[in-house]
Amino acid sequence: MFSSLLALVAIVPAFVNAQAAIYAQCGGIGWTGATTCVSGASCQVLNSYYSQCLPGTATTTVGTTTVGTTTVGTTTTTTTVGTTTKTTGTSSAPTGSQTPAAGNPFTGFNVFVPPFYASEVTAAAANITDPTTKAAALEVLNIPTFTWFDQVAKVPDLGTYLAAASAQGKSSGTPSLFQMVVYDLPDRDCAAAASNGEFTIADNGQANYFNYIDQIVAQITPFPDVRVVAVIEPDSLANLVTNLNVAECAAAQTTYLACVTYAIQQLNTLGNVYSYLDAGHAGWLGWPANLQPAANLFTSLYKSAGSPSFVRGLATNVANYNALVAASPDPITAGNPNYDELLYIEALSPLLTGFPAHFIVDQGRSGVQNIRNAWGDWCNVKGAGFGTRPTSNTGYTAIDAIVWVKPGGECDGTSNSSAPRYDYHCSLSDADQPSPQAGTWFQEYFTTLVTAANPPL
Ligand SMILES: *[C@@H]1O[C@H](CO)[C@@H](O)[C@H](O)[C@H]1NC(C)=O
Ligand SMILES: *[C@@H]1O[C@H](CO)[C@@H](O)[C@H](O)[C@H]1NC(C)=O
């Protein structure tokens, strides 16, 4: 250990003296690498977290934006994020110059059914003996579900999927829309344990995350004909609204904001990626006391990022169980007038001044209501069924689409208290058990989702 530290000390000056390559990072909060650029480029501040070597020279700083005043208990934290810059010269701006299509981005596209989840469902159906249940399970193969990129190692698959989506669009005459979840923040899932990710802030997490985003951008670039809808980082911003009392969330705040900012700015340069920031759900940010702080955070992050024009709105209820419109309030929602996703969306929308108030709502596991002991129970809730089918014909102008974001059958978290990433929610009495690790296949749970589907499959 000591000798490797000495070796590191010996290496450091070489990095300090190096000049960053064109388009490489050259500064920002937490940056320790080269701060000058190779000849022909200059280091320009894109935001407080990221300076980049761009061709061209002059940079004018025009202001600093405050992102989010978050009240947690009696403590108020104000975070300043991002310095807005205007760049002159020949450099390419990070926010892109293409104009999004007017209206609902789902309109006019066929939503692509992703092959990875299809392979899981095919294998699962093969293991079901009851013919009625098996046939119902196979129906899931026709329903588009989001693909989660929760590890950088999965990113190369994106290009493979997009090539298939592109080919399908060309042969059918209707272009394809690919649905993905961007989900690899360092110190991910800061308020829980089950979905902790591969990157840590302490170990170069921010740079690793920027690289993850860069790889996603590189995979999408060859396929401008495929429209991409991206849900950005489930739970991350919601955790910054309500969970700054959790030490790991407080410690992650600056990095989360930097990473989400980088993600939406870089995706915005592509011109075919419509982003929806994750906005928790009615039982989280939908509580009256959380609405305004949530709206402030979304709005100020968006403005600080330069109001990227392809940020389309917010995604709600991702991987949760709430109804879009509940027939009657579930007793566990008592005290919250916003007891379903529509009420939450209607309460939040007017507070989003300067942020696009469009929504997509996950209904993948919302088919059965009144199955939880408490609203905060999220792990493999027993008795859940697949819900309303994805559609862009939602009946509400604020809601672009009902979607299935969580791939039903992929586990939320392990119930084994000795296992890594164990979270107690996964062994509550309303959690289906025994359950394997988050993201792995949970056959028994899938079968229940199929048999309890509402409407039936
Ligand atoms: C399918 O069934 C076989 C035999 O019962 C079992 O070994 C395997 O784990 C099952 N696969 C899944 C995905 O449940
Ligand atoms: C629970 O996890 C521990 C630690 O990974 C493992 O040794 C044990 O076999 C697991 N128990 C079950 C029932 O899977």
UniProtKB/TrEMBL annotation:
GO biological process, one term: cellulose catabolic process
Keyword Signal: yes
Signal sequence coordinates: 1-18
Binding residue positions for substrate: 148, 150, 281, 284, 320, 378, 406, 410
Active-site residues, as the UniProt record annotates them: 189, 235 (proton donor), 412 (proton acceptor)
InterPro entries, A to Z: Beta_cellobiohydrolase (IPR016288), Beta_cellobiohydrolase_sf (IPR036434), CBD (IPR000254), CBD_sf (IPR035971), Glyco_hydro_6_CS (IPR001524)
Pfam families: CBM_1, Glyco_hydro_6
Keyword Hydrolase among record annotations: yes
Keywords: Carbohydrate metabolism, Cellulose degradation, Disulfide bond, Glycosidase, Hydrolase, Polysaccharide degradation, Signal
A GO molecular-function descriptor: cellulose binding
Top EC class for this record: hydrolase
GO cellular component terms, semicolon-separated: extracellular region
Stretches assigned to the CBM1 domain: 18-54
The EC number(s) this enzyme carries: 3.2.1.-
Family: Belongs to the glycosyl hydrolase family 6.
Protein name: Glucanase
Organism: Mycena maculata
Lineage start: Eukaryota, Fungi, Dikarya, Basidiomycota, Agaricomycotina
